[in-house]
Amino acid sequence: MADPRRDPGSGAPETCGLEQILEALKLLLSPGGSGSSSLQIPKRDVLLATLKSNLSALEDKFLKEPHWKKLKLLREDVASEAGWPQSSADVTWSFTAQALLLLLCLKETMLRLAAGFNPRKADPRTPEAAPALSPDTLSISQQKTVQSVLQFVVTLGVCPYLMPGVGVPLRCRTEFGAVVQDVVCLDAAPDATRRLYASCRVLLNVAQHAALGSLIFCRHFGDIAAGLCQLGFCPTKRKPLNSEEEVITEEERAVSRKALRDVLDQVYQPLAVRELLFLQGGPPQSSTDMKTPVRCRAPAWLRRLCGQLLSERLMRPSGVQAVVRGILEGAGAGAAGGSDAEATAADWKKCDLIAKILASCPQQSLSPEDYYRDICPQILDLFHFQDKLTARQFQRVATTTFITMSRERPELAAKYLLRPVLAPLCRCLSTAEIPESDVVPGTILVTEEELSRCVEDIFKVYVVGNEPVAVLVDSLIPVLGVFFSLYCFTKQSVSHLRSLCQETLLWILGKLERKKAITSLKGFAGLDKSVPTLHSLCQFRAATQGGIVITIKEAICDEDEALYQKVSSEQCQVEHLGDLLSLCQESGLAGDFFIFCLKELTHVAAESEAELKTQPFSSNSLLELERHQTLLVEGQEQKLLVLQLVAVLCERMSEQIFTNIAQVVEFVVATLQRACASVAHRTESAVESQTLSMSMGLVAVMLGGAVQLKSSDFAVLKQLLPLLEKVSLAYPDPVIQELAADLRITISTHGAFSTEAVSVAAQSALSKKDPEGKIEEPQQNSRERYTGVSHGHLSQQQSLEKPNQTGLESSAPLGPQEGSEPSTTTSQTARSITTEQLQEVLLSAYDPQIPTRAAALRTLSRWIEQREARALEVQEKLLKIFLENLEHEDTFVYLSAIQGVALLTDVYPEKILLGLLAQYDGSKDKHTPETRMKVGEVLMRIVRALGDMVSKYREPLIHTFLRGARDPDSAHRASSLSNLGELCQRLDFLLGSVVHEVTACLIAVAKTDHEVQVRRAAIHVIVLLLRGLSQKATEVLRDVLKDLYHLLKHVVRLEPDDVAKLHAQLALEELDEIMRNFLFPPQKLEKKIVVLP
């Protein structure tokens, strides 16, 4: 479309300087005269007058200035070769034409200057000197002038002639654009289409120079592309009758189409994508605001054209990256990860949009398979960017696209996406065939980079994407064995792949169906040989860059060494499997696999018994004998593996392994089956008997009320009835026989009837403290069950029981009518202490032996905490004992006494607190300083225990502590201030009436007290006060906050003690945080909805 460059030496006029051309361009852009500043003249007339004035001034320069002769000749030469009209009755086009001619002159001059430039060779004596600039280089100010001219050319020569819906209308851009739209006269010659063609042609011609092209396409590519689309692809209304009526020829339309495709190929591809998307537009818009102009929707032909061009951009090399960058950068993410890149990466809507675009096969593609073959490698490349912000965007897009393609076309996604991702792991499967050329010890099958990229890509697709699409899950199952082996290897040393492998295994095991998950776990443990694992010739090895490679291992000639490595490898895998399952307990997978192992253990016992009864193998064929021996060895290996697996699971799993009653029942079923098998084979042992007792005790615990059983739960429990019947009839232990029969009756009656043996078994399973209590309570339950006690009386007894008492101690089995209410309760007297016990402990509180006395005090404290009625009846005597033991010099004794007094005061605060305050406030003559300090510790614990209830005793507490701050004893002053801080921390707004007294006391002590410990305590009170009030400090301490701030600054500047300074600095930090949150509250994304009456 553009004219080819002229040869600078082919008889052209003498070259003029760049400065002269740029001066002419500035003259065209100079503002209007004095008349243009009048507010009475419309902007339209001002613009027309300015354009005419500048054109006249330029022509005067050419006529009157001799040194402009060279530029005049160059302009005339360029104008003579131009094939487009340069004059018109429309001033705007005359102005545009002159600007275009000057731009062509600028381009010609720059080409000639560059052609005649011969740079000198670099001086070796000054290699650091900068090379000489080319004479066609534009300065920054010159570039600004050219950019201004280009803006005028595009605004006056391109945008006014675009059809509605093609590009952005001038009226929607700026106020100046609306004025230009009114100024342009479309009726004057030349025709609008001819003007548009000339402007686009000249701009593309000027853009052939690299420096000028960057200035044009950087800001005006969208408008030029819109003009070329209109010129080359806009359908004509009718066929012209003759060539004179034809505004633009078919050849010119073809040139425009070619120019559009050429310029699309040359520019930065994300820019092309973004501008094409903008040209294509969106759905029709509607606006309720009459002042806001509504942009017309793009014509159908333009939408189809932009879609076709976008598809072509996508199908090019690196087209996926260009589309992603074009959309994300156009959304405000910046080029290659700007300041908004993180926000854009978090926008799932944009990622879903791009994924749908990439997953949809365009019409230009021959078939979906061809499209996927070309696009999928580019999608996988999006996972591997190094820049963090760009990587976050592209990885999220790649993950979403991966999942979308897998959902819409699973076969093609498996072939072109999943297969390349999983290829490094599939290469070393036990079912894969390794080429003979690679079967050399030390040969690297999978490099460090390949394996790391494979694991990371799997993590991004499966764990980050978190979409259990069927094709994704099914594709990963065959390589899970190798993946688990890799996980085991990473556990042996430090590796960045360990967490990725662990998270991926946990994800896939959680998403798989339970049967498939159990099968996979069997393969991990080596119990299922059909599950593909790591090839026997392959091994993992640490790489030089900190990663892992897969190599061909060397053959081991020593059979003992090979056996040792095999056994140790299996042992490590089992232990790592136990670690992995310990993280799957909440989902119930660990419990199901544990039950499977117990069932396998039962089969092992049965097979062992069967092997003992089988006849010796006799065969004349050595091959058959060897095969038989191999099968026997493999069978023994399986049995040892099962035993080892059960041992590891028992060691690794916690008591929370079973998550529902069905799993517990399956566990008990496996145990009962093993017991029945041992009885049948007469191989029972003490260990099996204990295991059986434990499992049956577990059932008794459930039936005893520890779990609220429903009708559906009893339906599950009925699976135990046949096995319990077998145990009750055949097991040699009479206790287990009786318990099995009783459990069978209780399950059959849905808990309506329960014997004493069931309750005893339940308490044994829970390991209660004394067997007498265990037996006595069920006996009482049995008596109450047959006396027909009313349910109302039983519920009253239930409410009096201690909160830490278990349901098995307080309730009988559940009845069928009342599935959630216990039918009986335990008598309170069975748990209460006797008078003899109380008297014995009271006497022990005066025992000269320190351990005995301390233990007695601890026992009394525990009874008070448990609200034992007999102990609380003698609360005065208990208070006297505790206070007397405060005088004891041993730490264990007086700390136990302090705890007892605090607990007793928590029960009777009104009776005891005032007495303690009087004792704390007394003089040295009545109590020793040590005793007063111990009472202060008691008061601090009481304040903490009372919590919000401390407000009731605010007055006596504050007065006592303020008086204590003036005590002659420095230790007592520090203790009083410490207690004052604990109290103020909990008073909140109730501190308001005494805040001035507290503040005055703290300021006086912090500034005047001679003891360092007391000054530290005073500053620490301020820290606790600010920390406790937090954001309420600005309201509670409103009147004294300034005084406290001055005090803290005084301490920081003048206090000699470092610890006091540290406390003051902490208080200032608390105050700074409070004031920052007060002045600059955090922004909350919430909407307040008010319902009007």
Automatic annotation (TrEMBL):
Pfam families: ARM_TANGO6 (PF23565), RTP1_C1 (PF10363), RTP1_C2 (PF10304), TANGO6_N (PF25267). Belongs to the Tango6 family. GO terms for biological process: protein secretion. Residues 793-809 have a biased composition (Polar residues). Residues 16-313 form the TANGO6 N-terminal domain. Residues 838-949, 1041-1073 form the RNA polymerase II assembly factor Rtp1 C-terminal domain. Residues 764-832 are annotated as: Disordered. Residues 767-786 have a biased composition (Basic and acidic residues). This is Transport and Golgi organization protein 6 homolog. InterPro entries: ARM-like, ARM-type_fold, HEAT_TANGO6, Rtp1_C1, Rtp1_C2, TANGO6/Rtp1, TANGO6_N. It comes from Phyllostomus discolor.
